[in-house]
Specification:
alpha/beta, Quinone Oxidoreductase, Chain A, domain 1, Rossmann fold, eight-stranded mixed sheet, six-stranded parallel sheet, disordered C terminus, ADH_Zn_CS
Length: 368
Amino acid sequence: MVWSGIGLPLECVAVPGVLLRPGDVLVEVEFATVCGSDVHTALGHRASAKPLVLGHEQVGRVVAVGEQSYAVNGMPLRVGQRVVWSVAVSCGTCPRCRRGLPQKCLELAKYGHERMQRGWELSGGFATHVQVRAGTAVVVVDEQVPATVLAPASCATATVVAAFGAASALVPLAGATVLVTGAGMLGVTACAMATDAGAVVVVSDPDAARRQLALAFGAVAVVDPSAPCESSTDVVSVLAGLAQAGVAEPTIALELSGDRSAVQTAVDLIGIGGVVVLVGSVSPGAPVKLDPESIVRRLVTVRGVHNYTPGDLEQAVAYLSGAWHRHPFSALVGAIFPLEKADAALATAASARHPRVGITPQPPATLG
């Protein structure tokens, strides 16, 4: 289903054939989820090439392989394997790839973000099939894990793994107090992951339903950032109450919403020697005040994380394979639409109460 511009319906386009080059894999999509970035693209909130095939969170099954096609673990890919794959296609040889930043490759291409072109028409998850190109991290997944759990691994879950990786390089996650701003898909995933690692998690989100969801994923306390200062639900008051109960000050903050005030809160409230990881600020926004003296005296580190590495994706899949029994990940997908109703899926995702909306790639009637 091809997006051609703001306000235009997605168009069904048939692709009569696919040429697999060495390292390429053809995957039949089992299930896809609508990421917030898909919605932002469709609404024109971000500059995007067009026409394009949206979608970069999906799980599928290998139906054809090119020569020398391998999974992240180095094993050859085979027809019939169930897989997820990275949002990024990287060259592996440029200076950024050699520095361990393949998600910022100088030759980078991204599923669900590139202009549809001859030779790579099947470039996004809102389709019956995706041509997974050489240079993409592919991870074989367990047959028993629900598709609703696995599909977000290639964006939301792997990004949270990358964020915690950036934080834990400076502050051990076990035993830390973690402040999470934003309780969408990334936020509740962060709650579960940090809780499982032995951290204490406090979540800030203005939406009451999302705050309740964060509690279900392990948060010990939730706060309403829109609450008046010095109220019982104000973030400062909640953290002060936890401190009286013996909970340490936050030394890890994950900012996942992109909201300016949330960024300010994370920077202002992080404890001595703490690290603030900015993840949600992927669109232009108002600047945030930064007091250099405060940063210096508190020994604060601010890091940015965008997308993730192949190792992060592999770790995300491993985590979900066990965590879906402990946490209600399968309940995070609300409405599910057939592929031919991808427009409705996007519209629902823009206003949905659930963190994700699903798409099943049932062939449109026009294609038989």
